[in-house]
Specification:
With 128 residues, the chain is mainly α. 57% of the residues lie in helices and 0% in strands. Helix 3 crosses helix 4. It is elongated and about 65 Å long. The termini are far apart.
Length: 128
């Protein structure tokens, strides 16, 4: 005998519409807000678009079902925040041309012992 779940725990069409569980509307209703949020944080249009797409795909997976304890938009923004953090964690693991350039510049400024080269050290800083 399979135990049944209470009716209140089973999704139904009326409940789904009431809490915005129609995924076909998520992009139209929340896409611009999600994109704007991501773009401000990653400052790259293509990356922001990818993050929004990954957010919507993750929201459709059964591992993260919407339970109706918040607004759909709040739930989607929570997923997006994690996607942005994952993006920054991953991008921090790879050296970029800028990192190499900074390394070359630091060789010009510091000696082998890690101290300023005499002719490259900053001047006296003004006290406030």
């Amino acid at each position: 005998m399979v135990p049944s779940t209470p009716e209140s725990a089973q999704p139904n069409a009326a409940h789904s519409d009431a809490v915005g569980l129609d995924p076909s509307t998520w992009l139209a209703e929340h896409g611009d807000a999600l994109f704007g949020y991501a773009l401000k944080r990653v400052r790259d249009r293509s990356t922001a678009e990818d993050l929004v797409q990954e957010t919507l795909l993750a929201a459709l997976r059964p591992a993260q079902p919407f339970e109706g304890r918040s607004a759909v938009r709040t739930w989607l923004f929570g997923i997006l925040r994690h996607k942005i953090l994952d993006h920054w964690r991953l991008s921090g693991r790879f050296a970029t041309g800028r990192d190499e350039e900074l390394g070359q510049r630091s060789d010009d400024l510091f000696g082998s012992g890690g101290h300023w080269k005499r002719d490259r050290a900053p001047g006296v800083w003004a006290a406030r």
